Amino acid sequence: MISSRPSHPGRKTTHIVNRCGDAIAAATGVHFLAEDFERRAGFQRSVELARKYGLYRQDYCGCLFSRR
Fold first, then answer.
1. pTM (2 d.p.)
2. Which residues are 2's β-sheet partners?
3. Alpha carbon of 55 to those of 12, 16, 50: distances in Å?
4. What is the number of alpha carbons within 13 Å of residue 11 lying toward its C-beta?
5. Please, are residues 6 and 17 in contact by the beta-carbon 8 Å criterion?
6. How many Å apart are CA 1 and CA 42, to the nearest integer?
7. Could you state, in order of their start, the residue ranges of all structural domains in the chain?
């Protein structure tokens, strides 16, 4: 399962991220969870669940600039 959270809502719209996730899921057979983790304290809940289940959480957006 894969999921994503737009880190800069003004620059990444949810529908575009979800469309990309759906395309990757269709191509790879991996389930994509299209969820808005910003609503109803969802981000904090996602952190708690990741800890509980030992899931990997990337602490940067993935671009080279953010790794500096």
1. 0.51
2. 32
3. 24, 24, 5
4. 5
5. yes
6. 17
7. 2-67
Helix (H) or strand (E) holding 60: none
What number of residues does the chain have? Answer: 68
Tokens of 9: 């809502």
pLDDT in tens, 44-64: 888 898 899 998 887 776 677
User: 3-state SS string over 9-48?
Assistant: CCCCCHHHHHHHHHHHHHHHCCCEECCCCCHHHHHHHHHH
Q: Which of 45, 42, 47, 41 minimizes the C-alpha distance to 59?
A: 47
Taking the CB of residue 63, how many other CB atoms lie within 10 A of it?
9
Q: Phi and psi at residue 47, in whole multiples of 5°?
A: -65, -45
